[in-house]
Amino acid sequence: MTTPLHRGLRHLALRVTNLPRSRRFYEALLGMKVVWEPDPDNVYFSSGADNLALHQIAKDELAAYQPPKNQLLDHVGVILATPQAVDQMYEEVVRQIEPLGGTIVKLPKQHRDGSYSFYFSDPDGNIIQALYEPMISQLKWEVTSDR
């Protein structure tokens, strides 16, 4: 296929061990807005150009749930407009992350390809990279205001 039919990887669904805690984390640190909450075990967010679903692990599974020792998904990322925006987000995350149940994984770092980022984890250990990437960061995103 020479031209992709899709419009990018803009949907992610995560299973979580404590939906209210994870909801607070993604609302506070990534500014995600709820677009649909079909029931108490599922919530769908958007930043305007993407979709994040959080699904509560079912009660009958939760008692026996063992977090993987090594997750197959290395990390997910959010794109920031500038290296300064990465630093600004880092300061905000550091200020808020502990009571929300996450941790800083890697400090801000300049990469060989010109990108700049830091990593933090959500309450379930999913790693998020806050990334300035010279090519992607300059793209114009179609963002809707009516989330």
Task: Describe the overall structure.
The protein has 147 residues and is α/β, with parallel strands linked by helices. The protein has a single domain (11-60, 75-137), classed as 2,3-Dihydroxybiphenyl 1,2-Dioxygenase, domain 1, CATH 3.10.180. The protein is 26% helix and 33% strand. The protein has 4 helices and 8 strands; from the N terminus they run βαβββαβαβββα. It has helices at residues 19-30, 59-62, 83-100, 134-137, and strands at 11-16, 33-39, 42-46, 51-56, 76-79, 103-110, 116-121, 127-132. Helix 1 runs antiparallel to helix 3 (83-100).
**CATH-defined topology:** 2,3-Dihydroxybiphenyl 1,2-Dioxygenase, domain 1
Distance between termini? Answer: 32 Å
Compute the CA-based radius of gyration: 16 Å
Q: Helices and strands: which structural class?
A: alpha/beta
- The CATH architecture comes to Roll
| Average predicted local confidence, pLDDT | 90
Low-pLDDT parts are none
Task: Name the strands of the widest sheet in spatial order.
Answer: 1-4-3-2
CATH homology group:
2,3-Dihydroxybiphenyl 1,2-Dioxygenase, domain 1
Q: Return the string of H and E elements.
A: EHEEEHEHEEEH
Largest β sheet strand count, sense and barrel closure: 4 strands, mixed
Helix amount: 25-40%
β-strand percent reads: 25-35%
- The overall number of domains is 1
Number of helices, counting only DSSP H or I runs of 4 residues or more: 4
Q: Supply the CATH class.
A: Alpha Beta
What's the quaternary structure here? single chain
* Shape field: globular
- Care to count the β-strands? 8
